[in-house]
Design goal:
Radius of gyration: 16 Å
Number of strands: 8
CATH topology: ph1033 like fold
Number of domains: 1
CATH superfamily: ph1033 like domains
Order of helices and strands: EHEHEEEEEHHEH
Strand content: 25-35%
Shape: globular
Strand order of the largest sheet: 2-7-4-3-1-8
CATH architecture: Roll
Structural class: alpha+beta
Number of helices: 5
Low-confidence stretches: none
CATH class: Alpha Beta
Length: 157
DNA sequence: GCCAACGTTGGC
DNA sequence: GCCAACGTTGGC
């Protein structure tokens, strides 16, 4: 079982949007970055735990928890010419992009901002920090524990 | 709204 | 295979 951080812009798809889906579950489509794709395709499995992150928020922050509830499967939006995520180079025989289904688990007691994560020496090697534009980041068990511990207390300044 | 970082594309 | 041009992400 692995840990992940998955980014979504709350104006586009927030954790509340996920919670309101049937069974709190939706497919995570639109990943069009090879590093992120490889993480999903090669390493994501049912039961993996997810930090749900709101990017492009003020401030950006970890807001809640989710879990992976499907194996990776082809991202069909790549085959839809009307989709924003259409990719003519992806075919039915050789799908280029994959996605998983994600289920809402719950919200953190307190959100954990990117600034607080960057200020925590324990988290200095988080891929969220070292690879700022990657939308699917692996999280180590230690990092997972630390973020959850931080969420127990409101941030001080 | 700006722009730094960085991934992708395509000419050569 | 290099690299310049370009597009996108996402923090600020």
């Amino acid at each position: 079982m692995a840990f992940w951080l998955m980014k979504s812009e709350p104006d586009v798809f927030s954790i509340d949007d996920l919670a309101q889906c049937p069974n709190g579950t939706d497919h995570w489509d639109g990943i069009r970055n090879y590093m992120a794709r490889n993480y999903i395709r090669d390493d994501m499995r049912v039961g993996d735990q997810v930090l749900f992150y709101h990017s492009n928020a003020k401030p950006p922050h970890v807001v809640g928890l989710a879990e992976i509830v499907s194996e990776p499967y082809p991202d069909y939006t790549a085959r839809n010419p009307d989709s924003h995520y259409y990719d003519p180079k992806s075919t039915d025989d050789n799908p280029r992009w994959v996605m998983v289904d994600v289920r809402y688990v719950g919200k953190l007691k307190h959100t954990v901002s990117l600034g607080a994560i960057k200020a925590n020496p324990v988290l200095s090697k988080m891929m969220l920090v070292t690879h700022g534009r990657l939308s699917i980041c692996p999280v180590t068990p230690d990092e997972w524990q630390e973020v959850l511990a931080m969420s127990e207390q409101p941030e001080t300044r």
